[in-house]
UniProtKB/TrEMBL annotation, chains A, B:
Subunit: Homodimer.
Gene Ontology biological process: intracellular phosphate ion homeostasis; negative regulation of phosphate metabolic process; phosphate ion transport
SUPFAM superfamilies recorded: PhoU-like
Protein name: Phosphate-specific transport system accessory protein PhoU
Length: 220, 220
């Protein structure tokens, strides 16, 4: 009985890794689509997000079956409940990647990011890709040192988000209202993406160390 | 055993209602703070959001205990898992109300909403308050006719959100970049608030009717 349960818990963990890998590809492709005005790539991210949503639903069902067929003890329940929370978070990260792709698609054949902010968004893209890659690895190997680097990149994303506001509000901004709207939303999407990754990282840390992280809910 | 479980499930339902009531007050006060530039009210919404976050954590713990102490069957598990999902959604709705309050606080003593959009945001506020109130009632009495009116108000919120973009991008906008940023973010907060309420409404409908709603994940 215990062996079956362990096997199913392992499967749940593998499902989360697979979801995270998919999110990693989504945010990578969405950023490239944004920075290079690549319509086909943007479309593929948008289409692929349905697959990420389906993975969340499957994980829900698997969790319910697992809880129903076994009688897990409290520690295991904590793992299952955390898995449910993390799958919801990963699903949101997929949505945010899709939103970035939708902005890229909406401005095509133009670039959504105005030239003066191209370098800032290139840095946001790099940080988001690192965050996504490390989230996958953290879910895979539970090396909680990775959680710290995810927090560091989230701080970087927050700083870059502040930079976009500084550019918009510094008094020298000459962008169109459309550009102001796009920069505002894109900045928020990247900032939220980092927040969600931190939430996953804290949950994994909590499961591994048993320590209550500063705050397990998604920072906002 | 069954009676204890039923009592605990009932308690879980009551916790969700209490959370929803708190979100209702948050979005009501946040909107009033926004529309009247009321600093004290904005501050109270921001402070109170910590309480909503704590309710989500309590609900997590209660669910884990409930699952550990009883051996629920699949239908009951579905209810518990749904409760976990809904508490996360309500927590996000609280965050969004807090974000509205933060914008109001940031612009004080000025009004964050520029005059030409005051009527649009007053309508968004009214729709969001109705949505929040009906979400509480739906969680209380499971009258799924309410789910339809929540969807209708969400459609209204989407339309009003489009109106804000039309105002910003119609070529006659003379607002400052700060105003453009604020309108962009506020519009998104209200639009997301409606989406989350729809997600709760669909979950309740699913639990009541057993029918698979169009999409149980949060629309985005």
């Amino acid at each position: 009985m215990r062996d079956i349960f362990d096997a199913e818990l392992t499967q749940l963990g593998e499902d989360l890794v697979a979801m995270s890998r998919r999110v990693e590809r989504a945010v990578t492709d969405a950023g490239v689509a944004l920075l290079t005005a690549d319509l086909a790539l943007a479309e593929s991210v948008i289409a692929d997000d349905l697959g990420i949503d389906a993975m969340e639903r499957d994980l829900d069902e698997r969790s319910i079956l697992l809880l129903a067929q076994q009688q897990p003890v409290a520690t295991d329940l904590r793992i299952v409940v955390s898995a449910l929370r993390m799958s919801a978070t990963l699903e949101r990260m997929g949505d945010l990647a899709r939103h970035v792709a939708q902005v890229a698609r909406g401005r095509y054949p133009n670039h959504a990011v105005p030239d003066p902010l191209a370098a800032t968004f290139a840095q946001m893209h790099d940080a988001a890709v690192r965050v996504a890659r490390r989230t996958t690895t953290l879910l895979e190997n539970r090396d909680i040192a990775l959680a710290e680097s995810i927090e560091a990149d989230d701080d970087l994303l927050d700083g870059l988000h502040e930079d976009t506001f500084a550019a918009l509000l510094g008094g020298t901004w000459t962008g169109t209202p459309q550009q102001t709207v796009d920069v505002t939303l894109l900045g928020r999407y990247y900032e939220r993406f980092g927040d969600h990754a931190v939430s996953v990282a804290r949950r994994v840390t909590y499961l591994v160390t048993g320590a209550v992280a500063e705050d397990l809910s998604t920072p906002a």
